[in-house]
Automatic annotation (TrEMBL):
Keyword DNA-binding included in the entry's annotation: yes
Secreted found in the keyword field: no
Protein name: LysR substrate-binding domain-containing protein
Family: Belongs to the LysR transcriptional regulatory family.
InterPro entries: LTTR, LysR_HTH_N, LysR_subst-bd, WH-like_DNA-bd_sf, WH_DNA-bd_sf
Sequence ranges assigned to domain HTH lysR-type in this UniProt record: 6-63
Source species, domain of life: Bacteria
Source organism per UniProt: Achromobacter seleniivolatilans
Keywords: DNA-binding, Transcription, Transcription regulation
Length: 306
């Protein structure tokens, strides 16, 4: 059977349309007409032999096959771009400043830094691990070039919503008999306010009529994990980057209320970042998508407006 050879330009249009949430916007970004992009998507589905996009409301969404194609398309494009830079001897130089939430400082950050340093050894990276408020303030002030942060702050214009991840109740790795104290109160281990996860936890408990207490408050994620693993209380985070000493509870476990999803957003200081920041942003995105695919591909960002 003759192998299928996918057109990289078609794959780039596909990925760009998904990332921007609209093939119309992808046409503008890529300098093509909307009809040309539509023809490319038809060609891609014909080559794949399966439906990649389905109607959802007033827009389109990826099918399961489309999700699979998206993951491979990103990898093929990244390899193509790396090969292009390598054979032309193009070396980026300069400095780039990256900020990340603590959730990603232990696992994702070394992966991002290592991959970027191997590809661009002449670039100096300054990395900062901090909480949301600090990261967003620094992006707004131009003190960071890129920041990976929870939520989606519409007041900052140069942002890209990468994923919507489920918030989870986090307990010790060894399940206890009960997560409530003798009086039926749920002890919480949380960051100091303001904290999106803390607010989501208390709001959900209040709506469910479940009493709770702030059993442990910490300024650091390491402190939360220590408290949770010791059985001092439950916390709320996403399923990404959890240490072995804790686990994400299943939905409804111990009768706990369901929690909402939370956005993960890549913020940029500039609408059109320079080549160094753009290259690092691409690697951050790919590492995030790969990490998300490892636990639940269904939770990757849906292109509802495509």
């Amino acid at each position: 059977m003759r192998p299928i050879i996918f057109d990289l330009e078609v794959l780039r249009s596909f990925v760009t349309g998904v990332d921007l949430g609209s093939f119309g916007r992808a046409a503008g970004r890529l300098g093509r007409s909307t009809s040309a992009i539509s023809a490319q998507m038809k060609k891609l589905e014909e080559q794949a032999g399966v439906v990649l996009l389905r109607k959802e409301g007033r827009g389109l969404a990826l099918t399961d096959a489309g999700e699979t194609m998206l993951a491979y398309a990103r990898r093929l494009l990244e390899l193509n771009d790396q090969a292009s830079r390598a054979v032309r001897g193009v070396e980026l130089q300069g400095r780039v400043r990256l900020g990340m939430q603590e959730d990603f400082g232990e696992a994702l950050l070394p992966q991002v830094l290592g991959q970027f340093a191997r590809a661009h050894p002449q670039v100096r990276i300054e990395a900062r691990v901090a909480r949301n408020a600090d990261l967003l303030e620094r992006i707004a002030a131009g003190q960071l070039d890129l920041a990976l942060a929870w939520g989606h702050d519409g007041r900052l214009p140069h942002s890209e919503r990468l994923l919507d991840l489920p918030m989870c109740w986090i307990g010790p790795a060894q399940p206890p008999a009960s997560v409530f104290d003798a009086d039926g109160v749920l002890p919480l281990a949380a960051f100091e306010p303001p904290c999106l996860f803390r607010s989501a936890a208390t709001d959900a408990l209040d709506r469910a009529g479940m009493p709770w207490s702030a059993a442990f408050t910490s300024p650091s994620l390491a402190g939360l994990w220590a408290a949770v693993s010791a059985g001092l209380g439950l916390s709320v985070r996403s399923p990404l980057g959890l240490p072995a000493a804790v686990r994400a509870l299943a939905p409804g476990e111990f009768g706990l209320p369901r929690l909402p999803d939370i956005a993960l957003t890549l913020y940029r200081a500039q609408a059109q970042p320079d080549s160094v920041a753009a290259a690092l942003g691409s690697i951050v995105q790919q590492c995030i998508y790969d990490s998300a695919d490892a636990w639940a591909p269904a939770h990757t960002a849906g292109p509802a407006g495509i």
